[in-house]
Amino acid sequence: MKTFEVGGTTLSLALFVDVTNSNELLDLMQAGTLEPEAAFLNASLVSASEP
Fold first, then answer.
1. Strand ranges in 1-51 using DSSP code E only, listed in sequence order
2. Is residue 7 exposed (0-12), middle (13-18) or buried (19+ Cβ within 10 Å)?
3. Lower CB density within 10 Å: C or N end of the chain?
4. Residue 32 lies in a domain
5. What is the pLDDT of residues 21-43, one digit of tens each?
6. Whole-angstrom Cα distance, residue 37 to residue 51?
7. What does the alpha-carbon distance between residue 19 and residue 45 come to, in Å, rounded to a whole number?
8. Of 4-8, 15-19, 27-31, 34-38, which gets the smallest average pLDDT?
């Protein structure tokens, strides 16, 4: 996991593989009931990261 400070807020990034409950997580996220608050990114679209 990588953690960044952005505008006084902490941004944490983690990569998960072989996830088996992605449909359930997506439903919770879209309903606004996923705790903690999260967003999902398609990792294949991320080209590089800061060291």
1. 2-6, 9-13
2. exposed
3. C
4. yes
5. 989 988 998 898 988 878 887 87
6. 25
7. 18
8. 34-38
Contact 41, 47 (CB under 8 A): no
Q: Is residue 16 part of a domain?
A: yes
The per-residue b/e assignment along 26-47, b for 16 or more CB within 10 angstroms, e otherwise, is eeeeeeeebeeeeeeeeeeeee
User: 45 pLDDT exceeds 90?
Assistant: no
Question: What local confidence, expressed as pLDDT, does residue 24 receive?
Answer: 93
Token pair of 13 as six digits: 């990034």
Q: Which residues contact 16 (CB under 8 A, 6 or more apart)?
A: none
